[in-house]
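Reopening this ticket.

The earlier resolution said the output was attached, but the attachment link was broken on my side. Pasting everything inline this time so it's all in one place.
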Amino acid sequence: MTHKTFTAVLHKEDDLYVADCPEVGTVSQGYTVEEAIANLKEATEAYLMEFPMPAASTAMMTTFEAVVNA
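Inline output:
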């Protein structure tokens, strides 16, 4: 069994935290940050059992600025 570290990007929608794993594309939610991450881990593991990742998969993360009307 191999372990790999993934990224969890979280944001709050109403009373739920939404967690997204950009490397895999899985998304889950929970009422706490911990619950959202635990649910994301479960969803990601289930997804990867069906659709394994290629050996040489590297994610990139950056930021950008956008004009918003306040």
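Reporter confirms the inline version is readable. The chain has one helix and three strands. The longest helix spans residues 33-50.
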